[in-house]
Amino acid sequence: MVRTLAVARALVAALMLLAVGRLAWQGIADGSFVPWNFFGYFTIQNNLIGVAALAIAARYVGRERPEWVELLRLTAAVTLTIVVTVYWTLLLPTDDEPWAWTNLVVHGLSGVALVADWLVDGPRRPLPWGLLPWVMAYPLLWVAVTLVRGATDGWFPYPFLDPANGYAAIAMVVGGIVVAGLALGALYMRATRWRALVPA
Question: Membrane-crossing residues (predicted)?
Answer without folding.
Answer: 39-62, 74-93, 99-120, 127-147, 167-188
